[in-house]
């Protein structure tokens, strides 16, 4: 617990120290969640952090999603409509909540698979902090209340039937639809069960961070069975939501950098936030990819997509002929939703009655 709190404190206080663009620096601090800073003429990790090892995990086969299917809840035929209404009401009231739900789904699937472990406040078999308190998630993730509201409505209609993992998957799908004005529309297979283990210590080394370079991004997606195209496609979700100032890259174009300096203020404003997409901040669209081309993205991990290896796909998505990005984003969301799903009841898989607490 102490280590997780220290890591979160380091992110809050030191991540934004020094305006250093770290692409190609070879330094990865707290798994890409803390900005390297110049110390004695070279880049190092602040606060005495030991640089994270560069681990290139062996690519896995694409997640099959075996056991999932569209229209899974025949015994609760209104399940998806129930979630859809709760999500639409929440996003209509606060568009940023939709971005939070999509991110919540991503952060769930990349740690222990899509099993709603990110929603747990504690873990079975451990007194350690849960995922929601890990450095990438603490005081950053949002949407928990929306999931709780949807789950409560589902329990009233169909007790002990719909898992929290599927509730979150449906919510991310529905948020995508609302924020894109229906251009991102897809069927989400279901049948996931909820996990019982959730560990903050696993988050930093599995979730790609805002200071990750291209090789790290590719490695972390490949470790989940997602290829480079999937990585570029899913990065497009950064066209919505907010970014904390401490994570903003130094490699922005001059005009946008000047505007952000005014909005973010000095070093003490690291927890202040700015729109991820300065042109269409409340619409899930392909504008993000034009921003990549214009050096108008906020994270080093976003800027990394301008590399030779990924530039052609960025160009294609920026043109967005025939809503190409929207359709491929939908497919990538389904593929991500297949990661390490639990579909057989057992000691580590259940349908929770309440999403924040295992049964």
UniProtKB/TrEMBL annotation:
Q: Where is the signal peptide?
A: 1-22
Q: Which organism is it from?
A: Urochloa decumbens
Q: Name one GO molecular function term.
A: metal ion binding
Localization, per the record, is: Secreted
Please give the Gene3D superfamilies that the UniProt record associates with this protein.
1.10.520.10, Peroxidase, domain 2
Query: How, per the record, is the cofactor bound?
Result: Binds 2 calcium ions per subunit.
Q: Keywords of this protein's UniProt record, alphabetized? A: Calcium, Disulfide bond, Glycoprotein, Heme, Hydrogen peroxide, Iron, Metal-binding, Oxidoreductase, Peroxidase, Secreted, Signal
Q: Which residues form the Plant heme peroxidase family profile domain?
A: 67-359
- GO cellular component assignments: extracellular region
One example of a Gene Ontology biological process annotation: hydrogen peroxide catabolic process
Superkingdom, natural source: Eukaryota
- Binding locations of Ca(2+) 2: 239, 277, 280, 285
Q: What protein am I looking at?
A: Peroxidase
Xref: CDD domains: secretory_peroxidase
Q: List the disulfide bonds.
A: 76-158, 109-114, 164-355, 245-264
């Amino acid at each position: 617990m102490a280590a997780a709190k220290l890591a979160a404190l380091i992110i809050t206080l030191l991540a934004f120290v020094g305006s250093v663009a770290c692409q190609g620096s070879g330094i990865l601090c707290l798994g890409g969640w803390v900005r390297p800073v110049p110390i004695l003429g070279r880049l190092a990790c602040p606060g005495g952090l030991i640089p994270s090892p560069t681990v290139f995990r062996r690519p896995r086969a694409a997640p099959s999603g075996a056991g999932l299917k569209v229209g899974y809840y025949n015994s609760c035929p209104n399940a998806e409509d129930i979630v859809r209404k709760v999500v639409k009401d929440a996003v209509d009231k606060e568009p940023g909540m939709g971005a939070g739900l999509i991110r919540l789904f991503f952060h769930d699937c990349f740690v222990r698979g899509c099993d709603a472990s990110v929603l747990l406040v504690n873990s079975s078999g451990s007194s350690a902090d849960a995922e929601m308190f890990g450095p990438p998630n603490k005081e950053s993730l949002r949407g928990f209340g929306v999931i709780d509201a949807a789950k409560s409505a589902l329990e009233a209609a169909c007790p002990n039937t719909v898992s929290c993992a599927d509730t979150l998957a449906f919510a991310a799908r529905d948020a995508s639809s609302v924020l894109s004005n229906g251009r991102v529309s897809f069927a989400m297979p279901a049948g996931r069960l909820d996990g019982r283990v959730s560990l903050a210590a696993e988050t930093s080394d599995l979730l790609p961070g805002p200071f990750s370079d291209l090789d790290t991004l590719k490695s972390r997606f490949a470790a989940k069975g997602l290829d480079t195209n999937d990585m570029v496609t899913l990065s497009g979700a950064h066209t919505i939501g907010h970014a904390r100032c401490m994570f903003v890259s130094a490699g922005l174009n001059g005009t946008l950098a000047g505007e952000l300096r005014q909005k973010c203020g000095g070093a003490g404003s690291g927890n202040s936030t700015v729109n991820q997409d300065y042109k269409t901040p409340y619409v899930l669209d392909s504008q993000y990819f034009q921003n990549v081309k214009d050096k108008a993205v906020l994270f080093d991990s976003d800027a990394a997509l301008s590399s030779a290896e990924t530039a052609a796909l960025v160009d294609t998505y920026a043109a967005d002929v025939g809503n190409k990005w929207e359709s491929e984003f939908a497919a990538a969301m389904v593929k991500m939703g297949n990661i390490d799903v639990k579909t057989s009841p057992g000691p580590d898989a259940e349908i929770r009655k309440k999403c924040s607490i295992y049964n």
